[in-house]
Amino acid sequence: MVIKPLYDKLVVKRKEARTQTESGIHLPGKEDAPQEGEVLSVGDGIWLESGVLRPQICKEGDRVLFGKYSGVDINLDGEDLLILREDDILGIVR
């Protein structure tokens, strides 16, 4: 299923939590979800008071950082996704 967010919203897939270090040590169950993800879909932008549509800064495929309690968690076709406002994005990882 395809989801198209409205206005200044983004659909983000969280980065998988690490369960093992690079050297092979298994990490105990972490309760903290990663605060990094990939943008899957973006809305058209936000209408400014002047009547101009400001397009999104983020694009599909961008790796983004967001706050710990930002957005709304959804489950779509068995896949855990996050819907965020563009204001919730702290930075784009290049």
Pick out its properties:
10 Kd Chaperonin, Protein Cpn10, Chain O; 8 strands; 94 residues; 0% helix; mainly beta
What does this structure look like?
By secondary structure, this protein is mainly β. The chain has a single domain (1-16, 37-94), classed as Roll (10 Kd Chaperonin, Protein Cpn10, Chain O). The protein contains no helices and 8 strands. It has strands at residues 9-14, 36-42, 46-47, 53-54, 63-66, 72-76, 79-85, 89-93. The chain has a 6-stranded antiparallel beta sheet, with no helix packed on it. A hairpin with a 2-residue loop joins strand 6 (72-76) and strand 7. It starts with 8 loop residues before the first strand and ends with a strand.
Cα-to-Cα separation, first versus last residue:
28 Å
Mean pLDDT: 84
Strand order of the largest sheet: 6-7-1-2-5-8
Q: Which class of secondary structure composition applies to the elements?
A: mainly beta
- Measured as a percent range, the helix fraction is under 10%
Indicate the radius of gyration in whole angstroms. Answer: 15 Å
Work out the count of structural domains: 1
Q: Element order, helices and strands?
A: EEEEEEEE
CATH top level assignment? Mainly Beta
In total, how many beta strands?
A: 8
Report the biggest beta sheet as strand number plus sense, adding barrel if it closes.
Answer: 6 strands, antiparallel
Number of helices: 0
CATH architectural category:
Roll
Low-pLDDT stretches are none
